[in-house]
Amino acid sequence: MPALFTIVPEEVEFKAIRAQGPGGQNVNKLSSAIQLRFDVVASSLPEAVKDRLRALADHRITDEGVVVIKAQSHRSQEKNRGDAMRRLEELVHSVARAPKARRATKPTHASRLRRRRGKAERSDVKAARAKVDGGAW
């Protein structure tokens, strides 16, 4: 899908942080992980996209409307920065198009008849399981 808008690089804030996980002495010395912060409210995105982005139930979006993405899969800062930017673009483009409005439909006459017939058959099966009243012999 072609993008109708782009994310302005000046609106994205990058911060180098220490990566988690194993790595020995190197992981304690280098800050190769990248934390990306993108303020949705203050961005130049269209209002409709901002609203859909804020409405997402995504753990990466704070209550204030800031997207926080942590990238630490690569050993270089540049690759992690590119990975974080790619993930932000994927997130924004996932809400770029408005969801298709649902049109209410009614069940057909034949489907209502099939449903009733099925209910009647099930009722007969259950009725056959009932105890038989022996009565007085």
Give the helix/strand layout.
Layout: E1 12-17, H1 25-29, E2 33-39, H2 47-55, E3 66-71, H3 77-94, H4 109-129
Antiparallel strand pairs: 1-2, 2-3
Keywords:
137 residues, alpha+beta, Double Stranded RNA Binding Domain, 4 helices, 14% strand
Q: Biggest sheet: strands, sense, closure?
A: 3 strands, antiparallel
* Average pLDDT rating: 85
Task: Tell me the strand order in the biggest sheet.
Answer: 1-2-3
Helix tally equals 4
Low-confidence regions: none
Q: In percent terms, what proportion of residues is strand? A: 5-15%
Distance between the termini: 80 Å
Q: Note the overall shape.
A: elongated
Description:
It is built from four helices and three strands. It has 137 residues and is α+β, with helices and mostly antiparallel strands. It has a domain at 9-94: Double Stranded RNA Binding Domain (2-Layer Sandwich). It has a three-stranded antiparallel β-sheet, covered by helices on one side. The longest helix has 21 residues, at 109-129. The relative contact order is 0.15. The model has no long low-confidence stretch (mean pLDDT 85).
